[in-house]
Amino acid sequence: MTAPQIRAARTAIPSLTARARDVLAFEWTKLHSVRSTYWSLLIAAVFAIGYSAIAALVYATTPRPKAAAGAPINPLSVSFAGLLYAVLAVGVLGVLSFSSEYATGLIRTTFTAVPRRLAVLAAKAAIAGTASLIAGELLSFGSFFLAQAILSGHHRGISLSHHGVPGAVLAAGFLLFVCAMAGLGLGAIIRHTASAVAALFGLIYVPAILYISLPSPWNARIGRFTLTIAGTQVVALHPHKGLFSPALSMLVIITWTAATLLAAALLITRRDT
Amino acid sequence: MIEVDQLAKRFGPVTAVDGLSFAVRPGHVTGFLGPNGAGKTTTMRIILGLDAPTSGTAFVGGRRYQDIIRPLREAGSLLDANAVHGGRTAWWHLLSIAQSNGIGRRRVTELLELTGLDAVAGRRIKGFSLGMKQRLGIAAALLGDPPVLIFDEPANGLDAEGVHWIRQLFKSLAAEGRTVFVSSHLMSEMALTADHLIIVGRGKLLADTSTDRFTKASARGDVLVRSPQAGELAALAAARGAAVTAQDDGGLAVTGLDGPAIAGLAAAHDIAVHELVPRHASLEQAYLDLTGDSTDYRAGKPAGQGTAG
Question: The pTM is what?
Fold first, then answer.
């Protein structure tokens, strides 16, 4: 049973890149070998593409529509209608990365295989992050082109070359990545799938509800600090005057994400498993 | 080699491990015995760097486990065979663990064969019996071909054939010069598997001894004698310093004199003996006597949480 090649390898200290490659391969294999990954991505795709297509059809056939919050709907925002729901599905992908391991106890295998817990967090973030960023950009551009294909038939579309549009479409895809990272952090912090998903739901949708229900200008003054309202600002064709600039709003988004991951890092390195 | 020194772990008011010190040496199967809640699992988790000790140290191969690079090549472990993602196949489960420590696919295939799981490698783990999961967990522990192996209650849920298989495996691993540390709450199981015993109760060390020595020390017993002249024989035995207790059925339980001595005594006085049976206290009984005090609390106060095993 003694495998000579392993005996020989034990004496050599592997390089940092080799160890990083090991942990990344570990997390990548775990991500692609369970069905929940494909379900979350499929649900994200159905929401993003499907809902955006429906919204585009409604917009194309309705004269001068207005959103519930009073903000004017434009051909760009119509393209992103489904992304507000897709973010939750991608966020769940991030949550499960940790919470499914805590739920099954597999986290102990993971931490005995890789006792550097920050390396585990970093690898999970890199793998889930890459997957969600690719999925996010594909869905964002996919929703945009589909919506514009529907709208252009009614001569109400907007071109990708229009000022501010490419940045907004890229930012929309980036928001899916952000939610996956927030989900990952919450999964590590809370450890229970259902509770972490509930927390993610709150993080994403409570700001939107507050924004609609609070009186102006307080809704904008408070809302601009939230992940969701800052998110709407970075994908807007005409940024809202009462909120932070798109650049500052991006900073708000990154701060939320970083804070969640930082809290996760502090907790997983200090807690018993 | 595993070295534990003055190890303590408290969970709030509950002391799960209370100043444990012992060493587990290579080339032996060392049984880690104790009633449920004695702190065995907690000790193993601390050794593996999963839980932080309140005080004391635990070293594997002279280092803290969490300081070892690619630790699966230094120490393999199985704490809970059910701690797997049911939706993943055995192949992907093992491959992911192998990759984490830079171990190749060939080794995964080897272990699937060794544990007899090669035929089900492509199946999702949720369809596995507990016995199959135990084998899968053992395969994962052996991936890195490690000199140290740590198993928490590995025989739980195995059928007779599985128990036999695991016993032979542990013995062959120890024969290869590896350190094999196996916990159990069953003395009967450890008596057959382990050649050294570390017995704990309520987080404290009760015994650290070879299985042989423990067996001999616990083999105190008595001799059951039946004779038509029981009263006479009892008096003679008592005069030789033996303690004699009359049984309800007329037999005599004699301690302090062995079988041949009693037979000789009877023959010298022309006393007929119908039955002469040396009786040994079982190993199980000796173990229960040793750990008895440490399990008493279970009847009264509730046991501590999260410290099972």
Answer: 0.85
Q: For chain B, what is the domain count? A: 2
Instruction: Give the CATH number for residue B259.
Output: 3.30.70
Identity of the residue in A1, A10, A33 whose CB atom sits nearest the CB atom of B73? A10
pLDDT one-digit tens code per residue, A52-72: 999 999 988 887 655 555 556
The answer to whether residue B109 is domain-embedded is no
CB A38 within 8 A of CB A89: no
Residue with tokens 């209650």: B153
CA angle A140, A146, A150 (to 5 degrees): 140
Claim to verify: residue B168 and residue B267 sit in the same structural domain: no
The whole-number pLDDT of residue A74 equals 86
Q: Could you say which of A19, A100, A272 has the minimum Cβ distance to residue B85?
A: A100
For residue A4, give how far its alpha carbon lies from the nearest alpha carbon of chain B (Å): 9
- Asked if B148 and B78 count as a contact pair (C-beta separation under 8 A), the reply is no
Stretch 130-149 of chain B: residues touching chain A, C-beta under 8 Å: 140, 142, 144-145
pLDDT (tens digit per residue) in B20-68: 999 999 999 999 999 888 999 999 999 999 999 999 999 999 999 999 9
> Do B268 and B154 fall within a single domain?
no
Range of the domain at B255: 221-280
Q: Is 80 exceeded by the pLDDT of residue A194?
A: yes
Show the tokens assigned to B150.
């740590």
* Three-class secondary structure of residue B240 per DSSP: coil
Distance from the Cα of A229 to chain B's closest Cα (Å) equals 37
**Between chains, do B83 and A18 touch, taking CB under 8 Å as contact?**
no
Strands B179-184 and B148-152: parallel
Question: Is residue B259 a part of any domain in this protein?
Answer: yes
